[in-house]
Amino acid sequence: MSNATPTDRWELGSEFDWHDTLASTTPVVDVFPPEHTLFSTGRAALLTLGRLLNLGCGRRVCHLPSYFCPEVSAALESEFDLDWYRDLPNEPTADLATLRPVPGDVVLAVNLFGMRDRTDWDEWRGDHDGIILVEDHTHDPLSSWAKRSTADYAFASLRKTLPIPDGAVVWSPRSLLLPTPTSPPPASAHNKLAAMVLKRAYLRGADVPKEAYRDLQRGSEHALTREIDSAASAFTSAILSVLDIPGLRRRREANTRLFLTVLNESRSFSAKPLFLAWPDGNVPYNPALVFETGDQRDVFRNHLMGSNVFCPVHWQLNAGGVHSGDPDALDLSQRIMTVPVDHRNSPEDVIRIVEVMASLDL
Fold it and tell me: What is the three-class DSSP state of 110?
């Protein structure tokens, strides 16, 4: 636990905060391809790319993995006719035999939880000319797959792994024409940044009511998810060049490894890790636990909230939006839970969360 955080204000997870020490005063590695475009959100990037791909040819079919964010799927329905292929994060690879596009179709390949390897997709791509392959690297924007991609387009919603109020990057490994934002940065990004700064003040013990930043977070997040073609904020565009993104990523990997090690050593849990190892060159988005039943997951998750441990679910397929209807995907989504042990957390934090979990295990 950070010495700057009062004990009674310790928490794990929830929205990122912002503090000036995140901005490096020494040169940092330029991690993105030279030719790229920044958008406010991954959703805005995908929708703008969809309009570019559909120019002059009407609505294309977009093939999505059966386990995918239902809100994004719903947004994509405005640009594409949707189809689905089987890809579940508790299986080692996508079942590409269930993927049957025709020339001109779009296929979205997703590096689920940062655990996927590029080999199968490279082989599949070599046998399928005329298909537009788009890769989603949100869960690990710097994976070896992302860096060596041969897709037509690739993108990542950077705000999911980095302490920025908004931001998504799009590039083309094949040097194709990139989509560009047609709307200015959203005002909601400024509110999100204000919430991040206020949260940092709160965590340091300032007399800031928690609801002051929570209300800003909720309102700005709701507004950001409605963006369809907006550029990234000026803050995000500037701060990315001074964030030690590889360093933040290494810390997330170290915390994930420590969490899984301590969890394994502590006791036998009713929930099992989704994974214990990952491909070379990849870093997991965060560890995930799979429970025997949905009720068990929900009770456990609510108990953790009472201890200021906020574990999201990626994704709640039956909570609205559009999903594949795959019964295995629906079942998994009701039993899975992500444990956020990212760059914000010290090794002491990681050990503490396992202790909290051990005291609550059902």
Answer: strand
User: Are 166 and 159 contacting, i.e. CB atoms less than 8 angstroms apart?
Assistant: yes
What are the backbone dihedrals phi and psi of residue 310, each rounded to the nearest 5 degrees, phi first? -110, 105
| Cα dihedral 110, 84, 134, 231 sign | negative
**Domain edges within the chain:** 245-360
- Rounded-to-integer distance, Cα 120 and Cα 125, Å: 9
β-bridge partners, 157:
168
CATH architecture of 245-360: Alpha-Beta Complex (3.90)
Q: Where are the alpha helices (DSSP H) in 204-326?
A: 210-224, 234-239, 245-266, 294-306
Residue 277 backbone zone (phi > 0: left; psi -120 to 50: alpha; other: beta): beta
**Residue 317 pLDDT class (50, 70, 90 cuts):** very high
What pLDDT shows up at residue 56? Answer: 85
Q: Provide Rg for the chain, Cα atoms.
A: 20
The encoded tokens of residue 208 equal 């800031």
From 160, 145, 154, select the one nearest 178 (Cα to Cα): 154
Q: What is the pTM assigned to this prediction? A: 0.96
CA 247: distance to chain centroid? 18
Pair 61, 105: CB distance under 8 Å: yes
Report the pLDDT value the prediction gives residue 2, as an integer from 0 to 100: 45
Kindly list the distances between the CA atom of residue 27 and the CA atoms of 127, 287, 322, 326, in Å, as whole numbers in the listed order. Answer: 42, 30, 43, 47
Which residue(s) pair with 230 in the sheet? 183
